[in-house]
Specification:
The chain is mostly helical and 59 residues long. It is 76% helix and 0% strand.
């Protein structure tokens, strides 16, 4: 994991968080009206952008 760039690590975390969020919503009975892969994709893209911005700021 240490070989991955910061945006790639954040994207992986976003993918896992998106999947966990979808699973929790299913367990609790909430209908998100969106396929699971769209939620994972949104989490991954958001994580990648967040990691890229953080890397640009130098933290």
């Amino acid at each position: 994991m240490s070989r991955l760039s910061q945006p790639a690590r954040f994207a992986l975390v976003g993918l896992v968080a998106g999947l966990a969020g979808y699973g929790l919503s299913e367990l609790l009975g909430f209908d998100l009206q969106s396929p699971w892969w769209v939620i994972m994709l949104a989490g991954g893209v958001g994580g990648f952008l967040g990691g890229w911005l953080r890397q640009r700021r130098g933290k």
